[in-house]
Amino acid sequence: MSPHSTSLRSLGIRIGELASGPANSIADVPGVAVGHVTLSDGAVQTGVTAVRFHDGNPFRDKLPAAAHVLNGFGKSIGLVQVEELGTLETPVVLTNTLSVGTAAAALVRHMLETTPEIGDTTGTVNPVVMECNDGAWLNDIRGLHVQESHVRAALDAAATVFEQGNVGAGTGMSCYGLAGGIGSASRVVRVSRRDYTLGVLTLCNMGRLADLRIDGRAVGPAIAERIAAETADAEKGSIIVLIATDAPLDARQLRRVATRAGAGIVRTGSHLGSGSGDIALAVSTAEPIPHAPKNTKVMTRSVLHEDAIDRVFRATIEASEEAILRALLAARPRVGKQGRTRRALNEFADLLAL
């Protein structure tokens, strides 16, 4: 969190009923790490966020994964193969809309360097890059400021402790007419006397200020009135939701989990507008799938029984809602291209506290 941010807990707000993990972030899931590169200088307000989902080689040991498109006004790459095969074989890179190609090329080069057999003695690799459009207000997106070196640096910077708010890919994002960006939260789920962790990371660039709700309270109109802000007629932003869990789930179950992110988004006030790109990707770290099994082509795998998955659904909804709010509260006021500004939610703490 930003050192200048206000926390939900300090406002007397607790989202949901499940306990959070130790850091209340996606990195509470063992093996998950997040890295940022922030580009913030005048009209340049953009960046890169990289998420690693385990400590090993993601191509050689793939993870069960699934994506769900709530509204498809987006330019992500790699989701077709995730949908078909149900696996993730690279880190996930987040950036702005027009930098998806650059990020994909950098991610491919990274995988080629770390996995010499790709494209030689085995098949090619499926890079996953997801985006939101920061060029609508703050960033000079036409300048194509994100370079491959920035993507590589974000991958190298991945750690279990990371900033939230308008940093990395979230630098120039707007959320509910305020400064947006990266948010994260986690929940702990107990199944058969064992605890599993589910973590969420959001890239928030959606919503109309008048629609903003915090834990069910309509706070957006009061903020809009105070700053005399005009509310957009239509919701044209986007949100990316990354979900990681160490619970044993297969791709079919993960798709069910990914759909529940929509409930968390809607609880903050978004109606998933026609012009919005709203996509969730869910990954299980429990049992990696070997790219080249040594002794058998038949695998025996563990999965949660469907009777236990409701708890995972609840964790997804709670963590998605809280991650969005944490992004808003961690973000700082931002000035971007043409002197355009975004105020920060934490400036209005008096309107938020219970």
TrEMBL record:
Cytoplasm keyword on record: no
Keyword annotations: Aminopeptidase, Hydrolase, Protease
Record-linked Gene3D superfamilies: L-amino peptidase D-ALA esterase/amidase
InterPro entries to which the protein is assigned, alphabetical: ArgJ-like_dom_sf, Peptidase_S58_DmpA
Origin superkingdom: Bacteria
SUPFAM superfamilies: DmpA/ArgJ-like
MF GO annotations: aminopeptidase activity
Family stated for the protein in its record: Belongs to the peptidase S58 family.
Name of the protein described by the UniProt record: D-aminopeptidase
Species per Swiss-Prot/TrEMBL record: Thalassobaculum litoreum DSM 18839
